[in-house]
Write a structure and sequence with these properties.
The complex is a heterodimer of chains A (about 220) and B (about 550).
Chain A: H1 3-6, H2 21-56, H3 58-66, H4 70-96, H5 99-129, H6 145-182, H7 191-216
Helix pairs in contact in A: 2-6, 2-7, 3-6, 4-5, 4-7, 5-6, 6-7
Chain B: H1 20-24, H2 29-57, H3 68-87, H4 90-103, H5 112-134, H6 148-152, H7 157-184, H8 197-228, H9 242-276, H10 283-297, H11 312-324, H12 326-340, H13 349-372, H14 374-380, H15 384-414, H16 420-447, H17 461-491
Classes of the chains: A mainly alpha (about 220), B mainly alpha (about 550).
Chain lengths: ~220, ~550
């Protein structure tokens, strides 16, 4: 970058190709919303597959759904919703420029995300022990042996991709924590926290759909 | 033509830093465009080499050059390379990257680092796919239909699928970057309806990239999971439905056709306006036709499954919706033609490609209507008729638009002029070679020759030999521009800032432009294509 251009950016954190910080913030926020639109279509493909097979095989899906641990699922739902609250509070703290509060809520968000992933791992372990992982060693009551495999394929794919998004979110929060720690995030420059928050809330919302679809619907029909 | 005293500007994006890292770590959208130019050209010639082998093999009825298995891998890799690594990225990443910020008077795209990252993602995806190719290839066809791709094929499905998955993120991020840039980075006075039509079509393409690509990403991921972990999504043994795969696949891959052709349409709008020295006739209609094609494109995927057990009612609806795409497409063709009417019509190279595009796209589009009609489609499904149809759109449309745009903006990109006589000759060679290659395939398909077959009855040989002969002419036609464009980089005459006497912000800055594109942010006070009456301009 030529010196002359670099010196135009008198405002800290303003990239050379933007005119104002507002323009930069609007661009990054719009960018995240567009990315989330992509994510909706990404999970949308999976939800389509789920819808088709649930429509075709309601009995098998109800039976397979019954095998999921509703207690752990409910706890995890509560954990995630709480993490959305701490995330929202972190954004609020960033807007007010309260560095210590921001660090506290970012840490809480990461902690809750970690708890979620831990509980999810326990659930996966149980499914593995119970031979509910699709494939040659899959075991299930004979009546639903075939179709239940589709349910568990979807279960692992949907919750697995969701967990992957949680891991990515955790890493983003780690970076945000670092930036908040070093003072990069200020009252005038908090859009990284804001758009990371958008991502975090999106991942939570995906779970809000996954939980009823996989754990709850058809549970009493069995 | 340009004034007599043309000087190369002392400071421009090409001499702003030398050495390998000034390119590989650049955030300048213009340099990233050139990185893409190198990469897409490589993949184009890899995919082209496969096409050459296919056509040589089909010169004789038994297919004497390669074995059946190799033939399957050749057409698969030809399709994968051309679709995912050339046709989809070519115009947006090369011309789009170079032009989008300049055309709106911005210094760069909204996210320069993300732009560079997109290039690296594209390269990683390409390397995965090249690895799949050199380590044995893949034989499923570029469509990866299940259950063949998940349980039967023993070839490199997974590395190829991963390559496509990874490259998809490059498309998504490029599309995201363009959308945000066009929304948020326009110079003062550059309203939506003052934007060049190339930007409208780029915007429409970006919408498809952002909304369609994630669906193919999840689809290939499901195929990979079914192959690796024996999950059941499409496997009939556990009650899965292979046709569901086709729905998901074409939900992206039909709109992908519009990802390929919409940018070329945008290029042609620019070429026609500059070549006729007139504003594009019916600007808002052409602009909204791009968005219309993008939206309708998402609603027609079912026409790929007319023979796959789709219900008759679905087929009827998808048929009608497919016919509707003809309306915005025809709006564009009619408006380009109306622009030429009483224009100072030029015969320079970019305009030759525009003529080629309009004619060939019209043939490709009209034969698309044959395929949208259920009864005709049943007759020609999976025949060479389909091959000819989509090559008229993709090669006759997209590649003509790409080459036309490359020639039109080459003086801006490089600062130098290419050899016009050679360029005209090669444009002619490409046009003749293209038609000789693909027109016989319409006839072959209608007579019943199936696609993807390695051998055919001797009755079909004459038409196949014609097609193979055309392909060799076409191959030569593609090599000549490589040569004279490279030559022009060093020896070409200096272009000056506006060699075509065209309007548009890109022609107001130097050739090559400075790194920050404009000495100061332009203030736009004129409408798009602000050409005066033909007599008033200095027509070359």
């Amino acid at each position: 970058m030529p010196e002359a251009v670099r010196h135009q950016s008198a405002v800290p954190r303003l990239a050379h190709h933007f005119d104002t910080l507002d323009q930069q913030t609007e661009a990054t926020t719009l960018g995240m919303w567009v990315f989330l639109a992509t994510e909706v279509l990404f999970f949308g493909g999976l939800f389509t597959v789920y819808t088709v097979y649930r429509w075709w095989y309601p009995a098998a899906f109800a039976a397979a759904s019954h095998e999921l641990d509703i207690t752990l699922g409910t706890i995890n739902t509560a954990v995630l919703i709480t993490s959305s609250l701490t995330m929202a509070l972190a954004v609020h703290a960033a807007q007010l420029g309260e560095r210590r509060t921001l660090l506290l809520f970012l840490a809480a968000t990461m902690l809750l995300g970690g708890v979620f992933l831990g509980i999810k791992s326990v659930e996966y372990y149980h499914k593995f022990v119970e031979h509910h992982v699709p494939g040659p060693s899959f075991q299930f009551e004979q009546e639903h042996l075939r179709h239940a495999q589709i349910f568990f394929s979807l279960y692992f794919m949907m919750t697995g991709l969701h967990a992957l998004h949680m891991v990515i979110g955790f890493l983003i929060m780690l970076v945000m924590f670092g930036w908040a720690w070093t003072g990069t995030i200020t009252k005038d420059y908090y859009s990284p926290i804001e758009i990371s928050g958008l991502y975090w809330h999106f991942v939570d919302i995906v779970w809000i759909f996954l939980f009823p679809l996989l754990y709850l619907i058809g549970r009493h029909a069995h | 033509m340009a004034t007599s005293t043309v000087l190369i500007p002392p400071r421009h994006y090409l001499n702003d830093g030398y050495g390998i890292s000034s390119w590989l770590l650049t955030r300048d959208h213009k340099r990233i465009a050139l990185l893409y130019l190198a990469a897409v050209t490589l993949f184009f010639f890899v995919g082209g080499a496969m096409a050459v082998l296919i056509r040589i093999d089909l010169a004789t009825p038994p297919g004497d050059l390669v074995t059946d298995e190799t033939y399957n891998k050749l057409f698969t890799m030809h399709g994968v390379m051309m679709v995912f690594f050339f046709l989809i990225p070519a115009i947006p990443t090369v011309l789009g990257n170079f032009l989008v910020p300049i055309m709106i008077g911005a210094k760069d795209l909204a996210f320069p680092k993300l732009n560079l990252l997109s290039w690296y993602i594209y390269i990683v995806g390409g390397l995965f796919t090249l690895y799949a190719l050199v380590s044995g290839g893949v034989d499923t066809g570029w469509t990866f239909y299940t259950p063949f791709s998940t349980v039967a094929s023993t070839t490199n499905v997974i590395p190829t699928a991963l390559g496509i998955f990874v490259t998809g993120f490059s498309s998504i991020l490029t599309g995201l970057n363009f959308i945000v840039t066009i929304h948020r980075m326009r110079a003062p006075g550059m309203t939506w309806f003052r934007m060049p039509l190339f930007l409208w079509s780029t915007y429409a393409t970006s919408l498809i990239n952002v909304l369609g690509t994630p669906v193919i990403a999840i689809t290939v991921l499901l195929v990979a999971a079914e192959r690796i972990f024996h999950f059941g999504f499409f496997d009939p043994r556990v009650g899965g439905d292979p046709v569901l795969f086709q729905h998901l696949f074409w939900f992206y891959s039909h709109p992908a056709v519009y990802i390929m052709v919409l940018p070329a349409m945008g290029v042609v709008s620019e070429l026609v306006a500059a070549g006729c020295r007139k504003p594009v006739f019916g600007y808002p209609f052409v602009a909204f036709a791009s968005l219309g094609i993008a939206v309708l494109g998402f609603l027609v995927w079912g026409h790929h499954m007319f023979v796959a057990g789709e219900s008759v009612y679905s087929a009827l609806i998808f048929s009608i919706l497919s016919f509707l795409v003809a309306i915005p497409s025809a709006v564009k063709v009619f408006n380009w033609t109306a622009t030429m009417y009483k224009g100072a019509v030029s015969w320079e190279t970019p305009m030759l490609y525009a003529y080629g595009f309009i004619g060939l796209f019209t043939i490709g589009g009209l034969t698309g209507l044959f395929l949208a009609a259920v009864a005709v489609d049943v007759h020609v499904t999976d025949t060479y008729f389909v091959i000819a149809h989509f090559h008229y759109i993709m090669v006759g449309g997209t590649i003509m638009g790409y080459l036309g745009g490359l020639h039109y903006w080459w003086p801006k990109i490089s600062g130098r002029l290419y050899n016009e006589a050679l360029a005209k000759i090669s444009a002619g060679i490409i046009f003749i070679g293209f038609n000789l290659t693909f027109f016989p395939q319409f006839v072959l398909g209608y007579l019943g020759m199936p696609r993807r077959y390695h051998a055919y009855p001797p009755d079909f040989q004459v038409l196949n030999v014609l097609s193979s002969a055309g392909a060799s002419i076409l191959g030569v036609g593609y090599l000549i521009p490589m040569a004279y464009l490279m030559w022009s980089l060093r020896y070409g005459r200096l272009a000056g800032s506006n060699p075509w006497g065209a309007v548009g912000l890109e022609w107001t800055t130097t050739s090559p432009p400075p790194t920050e594109n404009f000495a100061e942010t332009p203030l736009v006070t004129w409408e798009a294509y602000d050409y005066h009456a033909p007599s008033e301009t200095n027509v070359a």
